[in-house]
Amino acid sequence: MDTATEFRAHRVVVLALDGLLPFELGIPHRIFGRPRDAGGRLLYEVVTCSVRPPGPVNTDADFSIEVAHGPEALATADTVVVPASYELGPVFEEGRLTDELAAALALIRPGTRLASICTGVYVLAAAGYLDGRPATTHWADADRFQRLFPRIEVDADVLFIDDGDVLTSAGVAAGIDLCLHMVRRDHGTAVANDVARRTVVPPHRDGGQAQYIDRPLPDPQLATTTAARAWALGRLGEPIQLRDMAEQEAMSVRTFTRRFREEVGVSPGQWLTQQRVERARHLLESTDLSVDQVAQEAGFGTAQSMRQHLQAALGVTPTAYRRTFRIRSGTTTA
Length: 334
Prior knowledge:
This protein is an alpha/beta fold. The protein has 15 helices and ten strands. α10 packs across α11 (253-264) and α12 runs antiparallel to α13 (291-298). It starts with a helix and ends in a 6-residue tail after the last helix. The relative contact order is 0.09. The model is unreliable at 329-334 (pLDDT under 50).
C-alpha cells in the first residue's frame, strides 16, 4: 500500500476578524506549524482566512495584516480556530452574529473541530455551538460572558476546556496551552513536548486561571511551595502524603494547602494526580512497560487505579491510549 499518496495533513483554518490581537493570531501558526511525522512531513497545514474576500484585516495594533484566503477556506477545515478580537460589535454586545459572519460560519462542515482563544469564544457562543456545554474565556470577561450566554456552563478557573469537538481557552497565552493540548490529543505527548521545547514554553502548565487573577499578593517574605513540588516530582512512583509535602516547606498542612492553591490554582492532591497522569502518558507512549508497571512507576499503585484516573482525565483506558499514540508517534512498527 502506498501510504505516501494517502497522507493528508490535518488542515487548521484560523479565522481572522477585524480588531484581532496579532499575538493570538500567531499562536496556531506557531504551534500547529511545527509538528512532523517520522518521515519529516508536516502533520498540520495552517491557513488564515477572513469573512471577506482576500485582503487586509485590521488588528488592535498600528498595522493591518493581509489575509490570502476568503471565507471559503472554512469549508476545507478539519479544525477552525477563532482568536480574540476587540471589534466583534453585536457579537460581543448582544450575543448575535452579523450576517457576514453567520454566512462565513455556515460554510463549516459538520464534524469540524472548533476552538477559540480568549474572547473568540463569543463567536462560537453566538453561533450556538456552546449551548448547554462547558466553556471558558479570560477570567476578567467570564462574568459578562455568562450573563450574555446563560445557557453555557462557564468555568473561569481553567486554562482551557476540551469538550470533544469544541474547545475553548482562557486569555492570550492560554491559547498556547490549548493548541499544545490539541497536538497532544492528536499525536501524543512526545510530539507535543517537542513543539513546546522548540517554542520555549512548558508542555503543560500547572493549575488554571486562578493563579493569574488580580488578588492581594501573599507576603513575599513567606516561603513558596516550589521545593515541595520539585520534591514530589522526583518521587511520583512513591506514596506521597500531604504532610510529607508540607514538611518540605516547614509549613503546617493547613498553611501549605492554602499557599499551594494560591500559587498553583489547584489543591496538592489534584496537582499530584495531574502529574501522575502525565507521567503515565509518557511511559505508555515511550516504553514497553506493562500497564501494571506503568501504574507503579507513575504512582497509581494498581492498574485499576490508573485506569480510573486516565479514564477520568483522558476518556480512554491505558491500553487504548498506548495503542493510539504509540502508533501515531511512530515509536512502534507493529
